[in-house]
């Protein structure tokens, strides 16, 4: 007999080809890992793998424990996400966790914001290992409880009003933390929201699965608003934001996704869920509804509008692409909505407790009521009756018979009614939406207008024309102000200054004029002039030692090192006071040795004329010193030896 195929063949011991494990989104799932395998993360910490507790879209989740000496129990506090190396989502999620989910960062944020809890999962470790000749990547996280999607399916895909708003407030806290790290989540939905597992976290919601998280800014500079085909329509299509539909991710997109989730949790269905296969059609409907939020709310809630939801969506739509949201304002909108329904923000997620009723709306007891109606639970307050009451017909007329000239759509359909579904709510027809290029251009103009509004206003400089035509009294006052503000005179003498230096006593004309020479320099110059006037030989020797007397720039020469004289560098001042220039001639002045002269040469000037020139130069320099001339510099060099001329 031929062996049976399938499970029977495996039991008989024959080796069958193992079936490949592939997720719904096409990623290859890892092969089952036997419990007890020990792996090591990048921090050299060892973890022991337990049994599997779930399968995701790209990997599998196992229980884990840091106690490697004993088996992993069912009450383990940690889990490990495992995926093959060829997959990519866990790689992106792991690096995102490493940047924003460090335990010390989360605790510091909670302390700064004074938060009792924060639904941000903590990064505990990651790495890679090899199992059955295949390479796997893993990440260690905290263990959480059930996800909200399973709870939704158990309660007719609806949550109570209080539960929806309490979850919304907690998710806003998490988004504010993520956005502060320049990241966005981009995939908020009920299956990525998990209830806490540890005692004390039963009312806390954790936002997990950062596989689609990405950076919206780099070092404070927001990314550009443009179309990106590679990232267009990323995320869960019914909750994807309008920005994500064109591949542009922003902070307002996360808030918009949260608004779509809260709407679905309250009404169980979004208007664009009829054709989720056509991403462009879903995108067009979202744009149409967000431009007219009142029609969106009235379509989703025909009976009673939840307070605060319209205001929340209006604020999200008003945000610019690169604008930082006001998270506290969003939380206050939801808190006011809770308050309007008679609840308070106590942070509790109650799924099956009784619904409180406002005191003003409590029904009075009636004695003629035969049967008391059963009070509905909080989880059922937004859910329609499970068993609708039968409508009693007042007349025996057939419902198919036209009455009051009404059209019977069963027997006589009209062309104007064709295409309208009677089983689905009628959706409004929106005007043609703008193209993506026009939408991007409008958004860029909106961002530019916001930046221009936030830019500080420039102060206008107005010229004071009150002094253009002053009166005599004004001129007198201005002169007094100038006199008071004028600096006091400065004594130019080299001595210890006293009150006599600034007295108003009359002084000789020579003292009034500031001199550029010291008294010692003037004494040397007088003695030299006397010697030159007394002896021709001494004059010739002097001329031989200083060849630059007749140079165009006066005193632009330096004395010998044995001299105790000052060296004066002088640049010509303004044209109004030209410097003194020695007379020039065609003859050439040559140096002589001793008292002999060469044939055919004679001095340019006589000794008496030279002495007169030096005295005139001294007087001229005193006059020039009174003027403002930046080109005058006086240096003084003193030798240890005594000049023979002064001896």
Automatic annotation (TrEMBL):
<dbReference type="InterPro" id="IPR011009">
    <property type="entry name" value="Kinase-like_dom_sf"/>
</dbReference>
<dbReference type="GO" id="GO:0005524">
    <property type="term" value="F:ATP binding"/>
</dbReference>
<feature type="domain" description="Protein kinase">
    <location>
        <begin position="47"/>
        <end position="338"/>
    </location>
</feature>
<protein>
    <recommendedName>
        <fullName>non-specific serine/threonine protein kinase</fullName>
        <ecNumber>2.7.11.1</ecNumber>
    </recommendedName>
</protein>
<feature type="region of interest" description="Disordered">
    <location>
        <begin position="1"/>
        <end position="20"/>
    </location>
</feature>
<dbReference type="GO" id="GO:0004674">
    <property type="term" value="F:protein serine/threonine kinase activity"/>
</dbReference>
<feature type="region of interest" description="Disordered">
    <location>
        <begin position="527"/>
        <end position="605"/>
    </location>
</feature>
<keyword id="KW-0547">Nucleotide-binding</keyword>
<feature type="compositionally biased region" description="Polar residues">
    <location>
        <begin position="584"/>
        <end position="594"/>
    </location>
</feature>
<feature type="binding site">
    <location>
        <position position="81"/>
    </location>
    <ligand>
        <name>ATP</name>
    </ligand>
</feature>
<dbReference type="Pfam" id="PF00069">
    <property type="entry name" value="Pkinase"/>
</dbReference>
<dbReference type="InterPro" id="IPR017441">
    <property type="entry name" value="Protein_kinase_ATP_BS"/>
</dbReference>
<dbReference type="InterPro" id="IPR050235">
    <property type="entry name" value="CK1_Ser-Thr_kinase"/>
</dbReference>
<keyword id="KW-0067">ATP-binding</keyword>
<feature type="compositionally biased region" description="Basic residues">
    <location>
        <begin position="361"/>
        <end position="374"/>
    </location>
</feature>
<feature type="region of interest" description="Disordered">
    <location>
        <begin position="491"/>
        <end position="514"/>
    </location>
</feature>
<dbReference type="InterPro" id="IPR008271">
    <property type="entry name" value="Ser/Thr_kinase_AS"/>
</dbReference>
<feature type="region of interest" description="Disordered">
    <location>
        <begin position="625"/>
        <end position="647"/>
    </location>
</feature>
<feature type="compositionally biased region" description="Polar residues">
    <location>
        <begin position="499"/>
        <end position="514"/>
    </location>
</feature>
<dbReference type="InterPro" id="IPR000719">
    <property type="entry name" value="Prot_kinase_dom"/>
</dbReference>
<feature type="compositionally biased region" description="Polar residues">
    <location>
        <begin position="534"/>
        <end position="557"/>
    </location>
</feature>
<feature type="compositionally biased region" description="Low complexity">
    <location>
        <begin position="569"/>
        <end position="583"/>
    </location>
</feature>
<feature type="region of interest" description="Disordered">
    <location>
        <begin position="360"/>
        <end position="383"/>
    </location>
</feature>
């Amino acid at each position: 007999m031929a062996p049976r195929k399938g499970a029977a063949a495996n039991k008989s011991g024959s080796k069958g080809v193992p079936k490949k494990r592939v997720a719904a989104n096409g990623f290859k799932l890892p092969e089952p890992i036997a419990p007890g395998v020990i792996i090591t993360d990048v921090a050299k910490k060892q973890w022991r793998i337990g049994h599997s507790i779930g399968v995701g879209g790209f990997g599998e989740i196992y229980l884990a424990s840091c106690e490697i000496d004993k088996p992993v129990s069912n009450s383990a506090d940690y889990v490990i996400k495992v995926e093959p190396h060829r997959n990519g989502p866990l790689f992106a999620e792991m690096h995102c966790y490493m940047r924003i989910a460090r335990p010390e960062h989360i605790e510091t944020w909670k302390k700064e914001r004074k938060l009792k809890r924060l639904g941000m999962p903590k990064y505990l470790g990651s790495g890679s290992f090899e199992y059955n000749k295949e390479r796997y990547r893993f990440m260690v996280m905290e263990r959480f409880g059930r996800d909200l999607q399973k709870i939704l399916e158990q309660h007719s895909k609806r949550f109570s009003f209080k539960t929806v708003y309490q979850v919304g407030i907690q998710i806003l806290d998490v988004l504010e933390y993520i956005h502060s790290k320049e990241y966005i989540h981009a995939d908020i939905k009920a299956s990525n929201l998990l209830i806490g597992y540890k005692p004390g976290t039963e009312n806390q919601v954790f936002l997990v699965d950062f596989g689609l998280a990405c950076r919206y800014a780099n070092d404070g500079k927001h990314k550009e608003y443009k179309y990106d085909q590679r990232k267009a329509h990323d995320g869960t299509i019914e909750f994807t934001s309008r920005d994500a539909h064109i591949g542009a991710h922003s902070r307002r997109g996360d808030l918009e996704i949260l608004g779509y989730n809260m709407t679905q949790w309250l009404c169980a269905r979004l208007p664009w869920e009829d054709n989720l296969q056509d991403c462009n059609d879903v995108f067009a409907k979202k744009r149409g509804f967000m431009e007219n939020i009142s029609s969106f709310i009235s379509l989703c809630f025909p009976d009673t509008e939840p307070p605060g939801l319209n205001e929340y969506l209006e604020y999200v739509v008003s945000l610019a692409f690169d604008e930082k949201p006001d998270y506290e304002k969003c939380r206050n909108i939801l808190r006011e909505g809770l308050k309007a329904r008679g609840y308070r923000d106590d942070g509790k997620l109650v799924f099956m407790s009784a619904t409180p009723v406002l005191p003003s709306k409590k029904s009075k007891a009636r004695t003629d009521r035969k049967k008391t109606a059963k009070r509905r639970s909080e989880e059922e307050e937004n859910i329609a009756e499970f068993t609708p009451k039968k409508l009693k017909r007042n007349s025996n007329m057939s419902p198919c018979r036209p009455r009051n000239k009404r059209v019977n759509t069963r027997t006589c359909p009209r062309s104007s009614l064709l295409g309208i579904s009677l089983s689905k709510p009628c959706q409004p027809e929106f005007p043609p939406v703008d193209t993506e290029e026009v939408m991007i251009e409008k958004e860029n103009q909106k961002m530019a207008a916001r930046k221009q509004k936030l830019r500080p206003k420039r102060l206008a400089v107005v010229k004071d024309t009150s002094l253009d035509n002053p009166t005599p009294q004004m001129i007198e006052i201005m002169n007094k102000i100038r006199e008071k503000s004028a600096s006091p005179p400065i004594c130019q003498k080299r001595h210890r200054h006293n009150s006599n230096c600034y007295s108003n006593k009359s002084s000789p004309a020579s003292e009034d004029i500031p001199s550029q020479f010291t008294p010692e320099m003037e004494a040397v110059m007088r003695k030299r002039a006397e010697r030159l006037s007394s002896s021709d030989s001494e004059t010739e020797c002097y001329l031989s030692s200083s060849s630059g007397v007749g140079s165009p720039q006066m005193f632009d020469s330096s004395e010998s090192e044995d001299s105790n004289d000052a060296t004066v560098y002088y640049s010509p001042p303004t044209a109004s006071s030209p410097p003194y220039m020695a007379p020039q001639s065609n003859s050439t002045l040559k140096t002589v040795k001793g008292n002999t002269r060469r044939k055919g040469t004679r001095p340019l000037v006589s000794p008496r004329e030279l002495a007169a020139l030096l005295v005139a130069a001294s007087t001229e320099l005193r006059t020039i010193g009174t003027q403002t001339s930046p080109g005058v510099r006086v240096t003084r060099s003193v030798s240890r030896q005594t000049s023979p001329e002064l001896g």
